[in-house]
């Protein structure tokens, strides 16, 4: 790798202070540090050695943990497509290839639009390019319906990077989860493209193909909200993920594999993940007791496998920047996300998927939770002071 | 009554280059130096000029903010140079040492028969006072304060740290006399904290006039800050003093023999040494001969006075810090690494399991000074809490310092911490935040606000 290093060393002066391309230093820096971990050393005072982990490593591992969801999603897109057209005997590979052709453009557009925005901002604001978008760029296509138009995806991504992140100062400063900001933007701006029964499955038939009679195209939660109890996929199907839904969210198994990677490496917060599931389970259990409509009657475990619940719990709620930061706060935050997600699902028939809104709402509430947790710590510290003894005894 | 404290959060870093259990006494080094920068917030005023002759115990400078605190020469000889930096700040006062050390001697006395003020005066005049430091702020103790307790940590849990049970095994008498003198300085107790599950030396276990507490758990269990937090925490307005065990002996000798004998046994450690072992030397010594004897390995080395976690870098012919009982030598890491963040990393140290080094948990590492990434804003949460065994929110405290909100710093517990308590946070930080520097900035800000 010496020639490459030499080349970079030769190019570097152009981008440094006083160089011709000084303005583009953030871009050069991003490229250089992508190729080489820099030669920076620790200061002369303080900790002289450092852990090998950095934000790049962290983010790439999160991307890695998303790969099972991505791969399964690609297969499922193909499977659902062929199912809708009544083609039952399509091979796994063919399903996968069909899905991959549909999904790859989404990923390219998401990374392309997002990274361009990041670079432009870094150059204007003269800050280094942060690694955060490596993950957001992968999350955004995974939570979109497969039929979302590419231009819409691009607009949503740019919106998320600017309004969701950069206006607050970049990675680490944002209040809302950027990926969910993109989804929420589309959901409210173009509701017909983000919900209903026409966006989840590609049904464009080729010559000689027609959609089968029993086809509805709605998600499980859509069917449940409409009261079609018999159309809700059974718990096994929804756990494996062979149901319609956003690209990467359908398979609870894939999400759990991702969760295992995040928890084992120590990147994801087990406090948040477990409490989200606990909150959702409990809320669904309470609704079971009433059982007034179809959604209320779905068993708690079944609820957790439907829609974006598992995906949100594992990949969205655990975003460390927009979540609570204190350990105690994480339990409360996670629990309320699970609780609210099921509550929104059941009580808002217009939009049966509540996970996105629950997480965004709790993103906003997270600083408040932390505030009270820290206040409690402050009070505890003040209590230690022993009252001054009265002189008279 | 003694306490048993169990520390759960923390990390024992496994590094190669541990000092062998043998103490070498080299001839007295030629040059010694006192470095005013070793003392937090000190503005030195010189009492001697270059060319003056001094004995061990002759005052060299005093603290401009408290003229009673004298800093004395650790050896006898001639002041050869006053090294100044920017704005004529004094960096080093260099002393060419005699072969035989001559001491300023006073009459030996039994601290039991002296009053508190007499003891303080003796400590101040002899040059022993700066060994006593205080929390909050980590500065030299203020002789006008009446601390609610004095803490002595009888063990050091830093990586490759000296083993005090080994060093002080035959110093019972002077240690006890030192304790007796310190006992009169506090309104409360002297807490002598020993490590659980180990055979502590009799010098500690048999000590009188102290409360012996047992502490178990990983680093930073040996940090006085952590011990104070769990045994007798500091609230606003309270002061606790602390002193290193070896320096208690220096105080003991002052009363027992009437001399300022700043001898110190130093663990010379690190993977870049052929023969890491202990050396008996004197505070402020030049380390050139020691490093030559321990045989420095080839390469771009970083010499650290203190531990890898909170020591200070010194040149290869530099001087031992005033409070340090350890020298560590590691390799500089000023090299690029191609796609290092993507590599499997079987040899990379990380407390996370993001590199495959988790396959070998007992591996001893030879770490260099590379940052392994660039500094970023805080992103990950819950990391610091795993290595920070205090009921304090470390990230929130650091953020309160970054926004310079003194009232918030007070509420979040700034009085209880010092830089070294954040050393592990700095070590494991994904965003490469310089926590220790930030904490020092915060402490200085609060100290100036209230002085």
User: What helical percentage do the residues of chain A reach?
Assistant: 55-70%
Percent strand of chain B equals: 15-25%
Largest sheet of chain A: none
Separation of termini of chain B? Answer: 36 Å
Tell me the domain tally of chain B.
Answer: 2
How far from one another are the termini of chain A? 79 Å
Oligomer state equals: heterodimer
Write a structural description.
- Chain A: The modification FMN phosphoryl threonine is found at residue 219.
- Chain A: Composed of six subunits; NqrA, NqrB, NqrC, NqrD, NqrE and NqrF.
- Chain A: It holds the Pfam family NQR2_RnfD_RnfE.
- The complex is a heterodimer of chains A (393) and B (451).
- With 393 residues, chain A is mostly helical.
- Chain A has one domain (55-206, 220-375).
- The model of chain A has no long low-confidence stretch (mean pLDDT 88).
- In chain A, 63% of the residues lie in helices and 1% in strands.
- Chain A is built from 17 helices and one strand.
- Chain B is α/β, with parallel strands linked by helices.
- Chain B has two domains: 4-257, no CATH class; 371-449, no CATH class.
- Chain B is built from eleven helices and 20 strands.
- At the A-B interface, strand 1, helix 3 and helix 17 of A face strand 20 and helix 10 of B.
- Strand 1 (36-37) of chain A pairs antiparallel with strand 20 of chain B.
